From TrEMBL:
It holds the Pfam family MMR_HSR1. Catalyzes the conversion of GTP to GDP through hydrolysis of the gamma-phosphate bond in GTP. Residues 288-363 form the TGS domain. The lineage of its organism: Eukaryota, Metazoa, Chordata, Craniata, Vertebrata. PANTHER family: DEVELOPMENTALLY-REGULATED GTP-BINDING PROTEIN 2. It comes from Crotalus adamanteus. InterPro entries: Beta-grasp_dom_sf, DRG, G_OBG, GTP-bd, GTP-binding_2, GTP1-OBG_CS, P-loop_NTPase, Small_GTP-bd. One of its GO terms (molecular function) is GTPase activity. This is Developmentally-regulated GTP-binding protein 2. NCBIfam families: small_GTP. Residues 63-288 form the OBG-type G domain.
Amino acid sequence: MGILEKIAEIEKEIARTQKNKATEYHLGLLKAKLAKYRAQLLEPSKSAAAKGEGFDVMKSGDARVALIGFPSVGKSTFLSLMTSTASEAASYEFTTLTCIPGVIEYKGANIQLLDLPGIIEGAAQGKGRGRQVIAVARTSDVVIMMLEATKGEVQRALLEKELETVGIRLNKNKPNIYFKPKKGGGISFNSTVTLTQCSEKLVQLILHEYKIFNAEVLFREDCSADDFIDVIVGNRVYMPCLYVYNKIDQISMEEVDRLARRPHSVVISCGMKLNLDYLLEMLWEYLALTCIFTKKRGQRPDFSDAIILRKGASVQHVCHRIHRTLADQFKYALVWGTSTKYSPQRVGLSHVVEHEDVIQVVKK
């Protein structure tokens, strides 16, 4: 019995088990087994030598965005519109067969956009280059899920399931659970909140399934058994995702309005070039990037060359970006912009900069 059959068997078992107080331990164990088999499935086989052309693309620019979607939803057309890269687009499925990178220049930042081949159902099991597509998606900062407006609901549910299977969690925060395996002393379990979805017995059962008999577990929020399994496995990726509904020129106005009001959703039409600027704005927000401009003493700020950093970056990060020895020779910095009480303000290394601040570093 192969891993795929075992997974199918467990999924059937979960589907036919009623959810109630009596069966929650049984379900918890099944979920743990399922996660274990799926992890085995994702490990590359030792015997198979590397064949086929290279798939992973070198990371470049300030951020990386992956385009994921079913075949023929307009990913390549979108890439060609947004960037200067021409990705072959045609009206048949699987036009794009490898990963094609492009660069969006927006607000001074270079954002790498990856056009990935279409994902089909069963991609997590390795159908249609699905595994490589998903592996590249794991390394990106934001996922753009391209959906066709006419059949968006079905596609969205299937894609979410595929990504969930390989450990990508969309628009979710990491569960606030402290977990540390130990050499001895059994399992010590504590929680700072009342748990409604998980209990001590269930936690012990799941840990035993993973052959962990000594560990420290502390729940700081009310999490489910699935969240706890994610913490044990530890290779989950939590990333923001934008659901982009393409081809809105084929559906009614009411339907467009309904899709646009859903959380994390943007409606566009690549064919008619509708709403693409709003999509870029949303993407910038989800990437959480900030632009910082530098200024030399007695000169005007250099607005042509921005330093791109993540939101919440401090003056120290800016110094490292300019030169790695600059932080050691740092005396103070003068900052103009929204992060200061008055301009210019004299600040230290720990001062957090905001979007479009101007900074002048004074050395010792």
